[in-house]
């Protein structure tokens, strides 16, 4: 029994011809698995390594460098909401938004609500400074936030 | 002083058009005619020479001349040679590349095609930061359009030249914008920058010669090849005779406004607009009727300007510094950086600002070099102490000492991240020392301090 479905394996392998070596497929493979399983469990690391002819420790080494990837036991909630705390957002109220989100959800940044609906994160500058303060809903910018809009967004995400 | 009145945008000319992303519209506006002409009529080395003549300097932060970088490639190399597009735009307060990729991706991609041809790359890796999800999906579609119309793939337009573009997604790490960090990340490893030399042009991705260019730089290549070297050199400022190392700042530049301005937006102007003009005329002035106290002239790595600090030679204050490659350096900043201008109003504490900056670099230091990994962490701890009103007089000198000692300029680290971490700290303390000392004396507690620390689990 393997953790990666044939579909996921095929998707990973479809990246191999694009690069001069298989190791370069590490990040695409981690993204594919992370998107599908909402984390990258140990078993998946072993299977990615087999597909790319690497040692599991090499995949693990790369994965843990990018705090973006969640490992075994760190499964993400249904939505991952990042609140930018970069300078441009901080100057326009980001810290207040982070505090509000933590209070509303009853969790700290880096944690997931017990119902599994939302993982809250702070982000370093997400490049949406023309709409500061801004958030990233999974990988989509939500700009020109304020406390009221944030509350509406959080309510929506809790009930998705 | 450079005149910015009546300047018609070129790089941003198409961004407000409906469906500006689509190939069809781009071609109606003459898109890819330049690439087709280059392919038909020019040798690769002629393109390199043209870009060199234009004086184009990289828009990603370091300002290295693009044509000279290309000319570093070994001659008659059997290949492969790679182009790596640096779309990891992560310098805080910078978003010009995002605007280009989201609103006019084909202008960027035409630059990728022309540049790849110039350096004879058969594969271009387009490394885009994860946080730009919309830009990623738009580029994905644009690249598909190019394959379908025969502008990518084998034997493009029957020229015998073939090119593939591989879109590669990052995973939220600032260091991937450093060109060798980007290469390591592309290769599937942790993004630890490499010791240089060898420079990537000699030994880069997959141990092959590689040119790493920024998105805006590549859009400039499109326009230089389309409108000519004379057009490009007619904009901007020539070398400063007082600075023998200045190579001039030619062409248009995308400046991004952020922070306490009325209209935070991306503006295209000829190089050399002053901070004052950019903020007051193009950014609608400082918000809430306040005054600008400090400005960060090019992404936070560049340090801070103090708006009321007079310049030598009676040329006004630091607020009047021109935003060309040479300008910010005259006010003690590291350089022009990305051209991202962030305004800080007179109601904001510089202690909070510097704390935020230290928080960023401490989080984003890749951990490879000890002075940076430890230095950025200690600077943050000291700033946290200041923020809590428990600063000590000697803290300011310790901060300056750390800031001076980390980086490639003092020679203690592999890459420039640490220089970027030091510069905002030392410029802020030197220029606003009175404010820092008063805060220490009075034990002033920041409005952001909470009884319990936010647990940094990320």
Overview of the molecule:
Chain A: Keywords: 2Fe-2S, Iron, Iron-sulfur, Metal-binding. The complex is a heterodimer of chains A (160) and B (458). Chain A is built from seven helices and four strands, in the order H-H-H-H-E-H-H-E-E-E-H. Chain A is of the alpha+beta class. In chain A, a hairpin with a 2-residue loop joins strand 3 and strand 4. In chain A, helix 3 packs across helix 4. The longest helix of chain A is centred in the N-terminal third of the chain and has 12 residues. Helix content of chain B is 38%, strand content 12%. Chain B has 16 helices and eleven strands. In chain B, helix 5 packs across helix 6. Chain B is globular, with a radius of gyration of 22 Å. In chain B, the strands form three sheets. A five-stranded mixed β-sheet of chain B has the order 8-7-11-9-10, with helices on both faces. The mean pLDDT of chain B is 95. In chain B, a hairpin with an 8-residue loop joins strand 9 and strand 10. Chain B has three domains: 211 residues, NADH-ubiquinone oxidoreductase 51kDa subunit (Rossmann fold, 3-Layer(aba) Sandwich), CATH 3.40.50.11540; 110 residues, Ubiquitin-like (UB roll); 93 residues, NADH-ubiquinone oxidoreductase 51kDa subunit, iron-sulphur binding domain (de novo design (two linked rop proteins)), CATH 1.20.1440. With 458 residues, chain B is α/β, with parallel strands linked by helices. The interface between A and B is large, with 51 and 65 residues.
């Amino acid at each position: 029994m393997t953790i990666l479905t044939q579909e996921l394996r095929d998707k990973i392998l479809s990246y191999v011809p694009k690069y001069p070596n298989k190791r370069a497929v590490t990040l695409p493979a981690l993204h594919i698995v992370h998107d599908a399983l909402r984390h990258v469990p140990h078993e998946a690391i072993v299977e990615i390594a087999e597909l790319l002819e690497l040692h599991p420790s090499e995949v693990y080494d790369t994965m843990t460098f990018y705090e973006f990837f969640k490992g075994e036991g760190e499964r993400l909630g249904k939505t991952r909401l990042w609140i930018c705390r970069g300078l441009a957002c901080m100057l326009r109220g980001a810290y207040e938004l982070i505090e509000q989100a933590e209070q509303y959800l009853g969790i700290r940044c880096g944690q997931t609500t017990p119902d599994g609906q939302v993982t809250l994160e702070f982000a370093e500058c997400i490049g949406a400074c023309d709409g500061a303060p801004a958030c990233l809903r999974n990988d989509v910018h939500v700009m020109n936030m304020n406390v009221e809009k944030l509350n509406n967004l959080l309510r929506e995400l809790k009930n998705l | 002083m450079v005149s910015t009145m009546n300047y018609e945008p070129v790089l941003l000319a198409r961004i407000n058009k409906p469906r500006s992303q689509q190939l069809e519209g781009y071609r109606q506006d003459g898109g890819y005619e330049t690439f087709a002409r280059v392919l038909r009529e020019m040798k690769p080395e002629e393109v390199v020479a043209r870009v060199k003549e234009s004086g184009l300097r990289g828009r990603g932060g370091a300002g290295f001349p693009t044509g000279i970088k290309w000319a570093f490639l070994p001659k008659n190399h059997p290949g492969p040679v790679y182009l790596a597009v640096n779309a990891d735009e992560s310098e805080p307060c910078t978003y010009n590349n995002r605007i280009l990729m989201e609103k006019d991706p084909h202008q960027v991609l035409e630059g990728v095609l022309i540049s790849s041809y110039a350096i004879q790359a058969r594969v271009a890796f387009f490394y885009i930061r994860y946080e730009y999800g919309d830009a990623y999906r738009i580029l994905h579609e644009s690249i598909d359009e190019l394959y379908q119309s025969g502008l990518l793939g084998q034997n493009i337009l029957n020229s015998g030249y073939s090119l593939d573009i591989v879109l590669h997604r990052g995973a939220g790490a600032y260091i991937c914008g450093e060109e060798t960090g980007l290469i390591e990340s592309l290769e599937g490893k942790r993004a630890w920058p490499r010791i240089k030399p060898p420079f990537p042009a000699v030994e880069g991705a997959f141990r092959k010669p590689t040119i790493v260019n920024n998105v805006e730089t590549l859009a400039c290549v499109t326009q230089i090849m389309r409108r000519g070297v004379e057009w490009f050199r007619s904009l901007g400022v020539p070398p400063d005779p007082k600075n023998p190392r200045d190579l001039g700042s030619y062409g248009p530049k995308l400046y991004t406004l952020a922070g306490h301005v009325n209209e935070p937006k991306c503006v295209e102007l000829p190089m050399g607009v002053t901070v004052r003009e950019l903020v007051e005329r193009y950014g609608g002035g400082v918000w809430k009727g306040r005054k600008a106290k400090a400005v960060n002239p090019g992404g936070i790595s560049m340090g801070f300007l103090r708006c009321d600090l007079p310049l030598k030679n009676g040329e006004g204050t630091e607020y009047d510094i021109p935003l060309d490659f040479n300008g910010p350096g005259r006010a003690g900043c590291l350089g022009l950086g990305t051209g991202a201008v962030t305004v800080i109003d007179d109601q904001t504490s510089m202690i909070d600002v510097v704390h935020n900056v230290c928080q960023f670099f401490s989080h984003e230091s890749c951990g490879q070099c000890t002075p940076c990994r430890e230095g950025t962490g200690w600077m943050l701890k000291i700033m946290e102490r200041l923020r809590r009103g428990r600063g000590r007089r000697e803290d300011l000198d310790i901060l300056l000492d750390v800031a001076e000692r980390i980086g490639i300029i003092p020679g203690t680290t592999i890459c420039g991240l640490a220089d970027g971490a030091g510069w905002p700290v030392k410029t802020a303390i030197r220029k606003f020392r009175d404010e820092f000392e008063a805060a220490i004396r009075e034990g002033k507690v920041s409005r952001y301090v909470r009884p319990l620390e936010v647990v940094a689990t990320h």
